[in-house]
Design goal:
The complex is a heterodimer of chains A (484) and B (331). Chain A has 484 residues and is α+β, with helices and mostly antiparallel strands. Chain A contains 18 helices and 14 strands. Chain A has one domain (2-483): Cytochrome-c3 Hydrogenase, chain B (Orthogonal Bundle), CATH 1.10.645.10. Chain A has helices spanning 40-44, 52-55, 64-79, 85-111, 126-133, 139-151, 153-159, 179-201, 205-209, 214-222, 230-241, 336-343, 346-355, 359-383, 432-436, 448-453, 466-474, 479-483, and strands at residues 2-6, 17-23, 26-33, 168-169, 172-173, 252-255, 258-261, 264-267, 270-273, 287-290, 324-327, 400-408, 411-420, 423-430. In chain A, helix 4 (85-111) packs antiparallel against helix 6 (139-151) and helix 6 runs antiparallel to helix 8 (179-201). Chain A starts with a strand and ends with a helix. Chain B has 331 residues and is α/β, with parallel strands linked by helices. Chain B has two domains: 2-196, Rossmann fold (3-Layer(aba) Sandwich); 199-320, Cytochrome-c3 hydrogenase, C-terminal domain (Cytochrome-c3 Hydrogenase, Chain A, domain 2, Irregular), CATH 4.10.480.10. Helices cover 25% and strands 12% of the residues of chain B. Chain B has helices spanning 13-18, 26-32, 48-59, 94-104, 113-117, 166-177, 193-196, 207-211, 292-304, 308-314, and strands spanning 2-7, 36-39, 67-71, 74-75, 86-87, 92-93, 107-111, 130-131, 135-136, 139-140, 157-159, 278-279, 282-283. A five-stranded parallel beta sheet of chain B has the order 2-1-3-7-11, with helices on both faces. Chain B has a two-stranded antiparallel ribbon with strand order 4-8. The termini of chain B are far apart. The chains are: A alpha+beta (484), B alpha/beta (331).
Chain lengths: 484, 331
C-alpha cells in the first residue's frame, strides 16, 4: 500500500489537501483536509447581531451573497418579519446572480481546464477542448471572463458591488429598484442569456430546461456536432471518459430550497435518497455536527444551536479543521445536483436513477440551472413594482434562537444564531462544502468526497491523478466556506 | 515579469473581484504588459506537486518572482506555529512560504485589507493571531517587519480594500510592469495613491443629502448615511464613488454605509457597523480635515435650509418629490 498526499488544489476556492491510500492501483481510502482555519464563529460571538451582515459575507469571496442571505434569513427569523414582495424579488435576483455566476466560473475557469491537459492528447475531442479550455490561454478565458463581468453588473445595480454587499437586509433589500433600473436589469440579463444560448448551449434555454429524460438528452446530443457548443463538447468528453461512473457518494441528497417569492420557492426544500419516488421533508432539527476528526475540542454530535467551535491543533487522530455535518446521522451530499433531484427535475432524476450522483450528473445539473433560473429572474424583474417598499423594518429581540437556511451555488448553507441579552451568544455555520468535504464522523463513516474517491484507479506515474481532480472539482468545492 | 499569487487567511474575494474587471480581456491585458502568471490559485493548470515544485523554485530564488501577490491575512497562531494554515501538500505554514518568497521578490503586494493589515480575519480577539504582511492593524510590523523592503527597495504595496476594486489591483500591477509606480506613489500606509488619495465621499450620489444633512434613518432610505447609519465615506480613503464597481455600483449607491474597508482596523470600529456613534447627538467621526466647530455650525445651518424635496426624499426609498423644473438661461 502506498500513500499520496495531494495539494494544493488550484481552481477550487481556497486550500485543499487530500490524502489517498492506494492499494493494487486503486484508492482504498481517502482523507480530506481543509487546512485553513480563520475562526468566524469565534469572532462573531459577543457582537451586535446586525454586525453578522458585515462579517459573514467575508467568509467567502465567491459565496459572499449566499452568506449574507443566510445571515439575513437568520436575523429575519429572530425578528419575526417578512420582506415585502419587492424585497423578496430583489433578494432572489441578487442571490440568483451570484449562484449562476459561480456555476459559470466553475465550468469555464475551474472545471473544464483539466480536459485540456496533455495527458488527454489524442482523444477525439482533445483539440477542441484544448483550444477552448486550456487554463489561462484557451479562448474561453478571454471569452467567458468579460461575459461574467458583464453579468455581475447586475450586482453593481442591485447590491452596490460584488463580492461583499450589505444590501441584503433581514427585511429585504436596502436598494430599491426604479423603473429605469428594471430596464437596465432586463438588458443585462438579456445579454447573458444570449451569451449562454450562443456559446454554452447553442440552443434556447427553454429547450434545455425542457429536456425531461436521459433519452431526450441523448437525442439532443445526437443531433448536434461535438464542438457545436460548450455543453455539447462536455457531453462528448463525459461519454468518452465515462464520467457517469466516476465520483459516486452516498446518494442521499439534501436541499434547503431556493428563491422564495410570495411564500413559494422555485426549488423545494427536502431530502431525496436514490430509490425513493418522492423527496421527503428536510427537518433542520435532525442536523448535527460531529467534531470527531476535526482539530476541535471533542464533543458528542451537536445540533448547531448547541454547537461549539474550540480549536485544538494537537488533537490526536484529527486530520482537518472541518467538522462533519450529518442528517439523522447520515452522510448527505448537496449542490446543484441535489437541488434538482430534490426538486424532482425529470432529466436529473432519470440520470440519477441510472448512475447516481457522479461527476457528469453534477455538471449537467449545474448547467441545467442556467436554463431554469434565468427565466425565473426575468419574471421577478417584470413583477417588481417601483414605488412599493423593498424593505420591512423591525427590531432585533434581546433573546432568540433562529436559523437561516438558503442555497448557495454549491448547495445547502445554514446559519444558526443564538441571541442573549441583545448580543450574539452563538453563531454556527454549516456551508455546502462542510457537508460535501466532511471528514469521518465518530462512527468512522467517511464524508461524501471521501466516499466518492474510494475505488478510483490510479496510474503508476500519476503525480496528481486527473480522475481525482475531476471528482474533487465536480463538487465545486469552496474551502474558505467549509471551515470559515 | 513573473507573477506568483498565494491566498491564506482571507476569503478569496479580491481574486473574485479582480475577475470582474471591466477589461474586455483581463488575462490578455496582463500578458501584453509583460506579466506572466506563473501561478495563481484560481487560474493556473498545475495542482499538487506540480504547483509545489514551482513555488519551491521561487522560494529558492531559482525562478525569479517579480510580482509577489499575497491575498489573505498571515495566520501566526496557534502559539506562533502557523498551523492555522499549512499550505496543502507541503506541511509547512503559509507564513513560512510567504516569508521565503518575499526574500527574493522584486515587488511584494498585499492584495486586500487582510493581507495589508490583518483585516476581518483579525476581528474580535483575533483567534488565529492574524496580521498583515507589513502591518498589524495600523502598527508597522506584521509578518515581514517594519524594515522589510523587496528587491526593488519598496515596502510592501498595500492594495487595501475589502474586497479590492479590480482596477486597484490591475492598475498597480500594470504600473509596476510599466515602471510608472514608485515609492512616492504610495501613501503613508503603503497604499497606491492613485486610489487612496481620494475619499469615498467624492462623487457620492447622496451628496445633496449630505450638503443639507438630510439623513437616512433606516435601511433603504435615500438620505445621507453619515448621521445615523454608520457611513464613513467622508473619512475612508478610496475612489469608490468615482470609479464604479461592477458597472455602476458603490456601497453608498447600493443602499448601505461605507464601512471604511480600506483602512487598518476597520473590522473593529467600536460600534455596530451600521449605527453612527455620537457624543451629545453629534457624530464622533467627522469628515476628514474638517474642524469640529465648523462642522457643527454648518450642519445646524444646512439643516435649517433643507428644501422640502430633499427632506422628504431622504427618508423614502424612492424620490417622492422631483426637482422643480426651471427655465434655462440666466436665472
Amino acid at each position: 500500500m502506498s500513500r499520496l498526499v495531494l495539494g494544493p488544489f488550484n481552481r477550487v476556492e481556497g486550500d485543499l489537501e487530500v490524502t489517498l491510500d492506494i492499494d493494487g492501483g486503486r484508492i482504498r481510502s481517502a482523507r480530506v483536509n481543509s487546512p485553513l482555519y480563520r475562526g468566524f464563529e469565534q469572532i462573531l460571538a459577543g457582537k451586535d447581531p446586525r454586525d453578522a451582515l458585515v462579517f459573514v459575507p467575508r467568509i467567502c469571496g465567491i459565496c459572499s451573497v449566499s452568506q449574507s442571505a443566510a445571515a439575513a434569513a437568520a436575523l429575519r427569523d429572530a425578528m419575526g418579519i417578512r420582506p415585502p414582495p419587492n424585497g423578496e424579488r430583489a433578494a432572489s435576483l441578487v442571490l440568483a446572480t451570484e449562484n449562476l455566476a459561480d456555476h459559470f466560473t466553475h465550468f469555464y475557469l475551474f472545471f473544464m481546464a483539466d480536459f485540456a491537459r496533455e495527458a488527454y492528447a489524442g482523444r477525439r475531442w482533445f483539440d477542441a477542448a484544448q483550444a477552448r479550455f486550456k487554463a489561462v490561454k484557451g479562448s474561453a478565458a478571454a471569452d467567458a471572463l468579460p461575459a461574467r463581468a458583464a453579468f455581475l453588473q447586475i450586482m453593481g445595480l442591485l447590491a452596490g458591488k460584488w463580492p461583499h454587499s450589505l444590501s441584503l437586509q433581514p427585511g429585504g433589500s436596502a436598494r430599491a429598484i426604479s423603473s429605469a433600473d428594471k430596464i437596465r436589469l432586463f438588458a443585462l440579463l438579456s445579454e447573458f442569456r444570449s451569451w449562454l444560448e450562443r456559446r454554452l448551449f447553442g440552443d434556447r434555454l427553454e429547450v434545455i430546461a425542457a429536456l425531461d429524460s436521459a433519452q431526450a438528452l441523448d437525442n439532443w446530443q445526437a443531433a448536434r456536432a461535438p464542438a457545436s457548443s460548450d455543453f455539447r463538447l462536455f457531453l462528448e468528453i463525459a461519454d468518452d471518459l465515462r464520467l457517469q461512473d466516476l465520483g459516486r457518494a452516498s446518494d442521499l441528497f439534501i436541499s434547503n430550497g431556493a428563491y422564495t417569492v410570495d411564500q413559494a420557492v422555485l426549488f423545494v426544500r427536502g431530502r431525496w435518497q436514490l430509490g425513493e419516488q418522492h423527496a421527503r421533508p428536510l427537518d433542520p432539527a435532525s442536523i448535527t455536527e460531529d467534531a470527531h476528526s476535526a482539530w476541535m475540542a471533542d464533543s458528542p454530535p451537536l445540533h448547531p444551536h448547541r454547537g461549539q467551535t474550540l480549536p485544538d491543533a494537537d488533537k490526536p487522530d484529527a486530520y482537518t479543521w472541518c467538522k462533519a455535518p450529518r442528517l439523522d446521522g447520515a452522510v448527505a451530499e448537496c449542490g446543484a445536483l441535489a437541488r434538482q433531484l430534490v426538486d424532482g427535475h425529470p432529466l436529473m432524476r432519470d440520470l440519477a436513477v441510472a448512475s447516481g450522483g457522479n461527476v457528469r450528473n453534477r455538471v449537467i445539473a449545474r448547467l441545467l440551472e442556467f436554463a431554469r433560473v434565468i427565466p425565473a429572474m426575468e419574471q421577478w424583474i417584470r413583477e417588481i413594482q417601483p414605488g412599493e417598499p423593498f424593505c420591512t423594518q423591525g427590531t432585533i429581540p434581546d433573546e432568540a434562537e433562529s436559523c437561516g437556511l438558503v442555497e448557495a451555488a454549491r448547495g445547502a448553507l445554514g446559519h444558526w444564531l443564538v441571541i442573549r441579552k441583545g448580543r450574539i451568544a452563538n453563531y454556527q455555520i454549516i456551508a455546502p462544502t462542510t457537508w460535501n468535504f466532511s471528514p469521518r464522523d465518530a462512527g468512522g463513516t467517511p464524508g461524501p468526497l471521501e466516499q466518492a474517491l474510494a475505488g478510483i484507479a490510479i496510474g503508476e506515474h500519476e503525480r496528481v491523478p486527473l480522475a481525482v481532480q475531476h471528482v474533487v472539482r465536480s463538487f465545486d468545492p469552496c474551502m474558505v466556506c467549509t471551515v470559515h | 515579469m513573473n507573477l506568483v499569487w498565494l491566498q491564506s487567511g482571507g476569503c478569496g474575494g479580491c481574486t473574485m473581484s479582480m475577475l470582474c474587471s471591466s477589461s474586455r480581456d483581463l488575462l490578455g491585458l496582463l500578458r501584453n504588459a509583460g506579466i506572466h502568471v506563473l501561478w495563481h490559485p484560481s487560474l493556473s493548470e498545475q495542482s499538487g506537486t506540480e504547483a509545489l515544485d514551482v513555488l519551491q523554485a521561487c522560494a529558492d530564488g531559482r525562478i525569479p518572482v517579480d510580482l509577489l501577490c499575497i491575498e489573505g491575512a498571515m495566520l501566526r497562531g496557534p502559539n506562533g506555529s502557523g498551523r492555522f494554515h499549512l499550505l496543502a501538500g507541503s506541511g509547512r505554514p503559509m507564513t513560512e512560504w510567504v516569508a521565503a518568497l518575499a526574500r527574493h521578490a522584486r515587488h511584494t503586494l498585499a492584495i486586500g485589507s487582510c493581507a495589508a493589515w490583518g483585516g476581518i480575519t483579525a476581528g474580535s480577539f483575533n483567534p488565529t493571531d492574524a496580521c498583515g504582511l507589513q502591518y498589524e492593524g495600523d502598527v508597522p510590523g506584521g509578518l515581514l517587519g517594519a524594515h522589510y523592503r523587496s528587491a526593488s527597495g519598496m515596502p510592501v504595496i498595500n492594495v487595501a480594500g475589502c474586497p479590492t476594486h479590480p482596477d486597484w489591483v490591475t492598475d498597480t500591477l500594470l504600473g509596476l510592469a510599466l515602471d510608472s509606480l514608485h515609492h512616492a506613489d504610495l501613501d503613508a500606509l503603503g497604499r497606491p495613491r492613485f486610489y487612496a488619495d481620494q475619499l469615498v465621499h467624492h462623487g457620492c450620489s447622496r451628496n445633496e443629502f449630505y450638503e443639507f444633512k438630510a439623513s437616512a434613518e433606516k435601511p433603504s432610505d435615500l438620505g445621507c448615511m453619515m448621521e445615523h447609519m454608520g457611513c464613513k465615506g467622508t473619512q475612508a480613503h478610496a475612489d469608490c464613488n468615482t470609479r464604479p464597481w461592477n458597472g455602476s455600483g458603490s456601497c453608498t449607491s447600493g443602499g448601505y454605509a461605507c464601512i471604511s474597508c480600506t483602512e487598518p482596523g476597520f473590522e473593529e470600529p467600536g460600534h455596530p457597523f451600521t449605527q453612527t456613534p455620537k457624543l451629545a447627538g453629534i457624530p464622533i467621526g467627522l469628515p476628514s480635515d474638517m474642524p469640529k466647530a465648523w462642522f457643527v455650525a454648518l450642519a445646524a445651518l444646512s439643516k435649517s435650509a433643507t428644501p422640502q424635496r430633499v427632506r422628504d426624499n431622504a427618508v423614502a426609498d424612492h424620490p417622492v418629490i422631483a426637482p422643480a423644473i426651471r427655465r434655462t438661461g440666466l436665472k
